[in-house]
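Worked example 3 (structure in, sequence out).
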């Protein structure tokens, strides 16, 4: 395991500081909440729907939140706006064009443009738009996805609290 952690650093020339790295135990503790949240979402999906792939992008959202819970792309507003917008756009393109490449491509382009215009860029939402455009199923999946996004949004708060606790009680790490 490399100690450089270059994949976690801002790119050269970026005007952004690096999230303070924790020791291995701290990083694993910080990763625990996203893992548990996604397992809860998966259990919820299993009980209420058979459209498991519609929720895969939330796992990416959860990991981005773990990586940098204080980054703008992981704010509650950005997460909820982009994910719900993408799901809705994907769902409607599915209804208009059917579950194929035209629906997926249209949903992806509209989602990207609106994320930029609304300043709500959360990359996993692109996958959400594709998932709903390719296999939307029915309206209940959109409602279930909205509930799952709400659960994932709570993760932002949990991760920020965890960072605060870790910084307060382990200032030397």
């Amino acid at each position: 395991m490399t100690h450089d952690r270059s994949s976690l650093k801002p790119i050269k020339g970026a005007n952004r500081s690096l999230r303070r790295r924790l020791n291995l135990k701290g990083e694993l503790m910080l990763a625990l909440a996203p893992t548990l949240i996604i397992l809860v979402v998966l259990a919820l999906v299993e009980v209420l729907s058979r459209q498991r792939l519609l929720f895969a992008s939330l796992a990416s959202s959860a990991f981005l939140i773990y990586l940098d819970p204080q980054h703008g792309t992981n704010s509650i507003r950005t997460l909820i706006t982009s994910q719900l917008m993408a799901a809705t756009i994907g769902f409607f393109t599915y209804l208009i064009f059917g579950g194929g490449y035209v629906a997926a491509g249209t949903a992806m382009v509209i989602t990207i443009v609106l994320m930029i215009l609304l300043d709500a860029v959360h990359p996993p939402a692109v996958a959400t738009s594709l998932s709903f455009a390719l296999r939307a199923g029915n309206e209940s999946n959109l409602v279930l996805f909205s509930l799952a996004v709400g659960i994932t949004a709570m993760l932002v708060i949990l991760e920020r609290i965890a960072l605060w606790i870790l910084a307060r009680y382990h200032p030397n790490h």
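Notes: The chain has one domain: 23-169. The chain has six helices and no strands.
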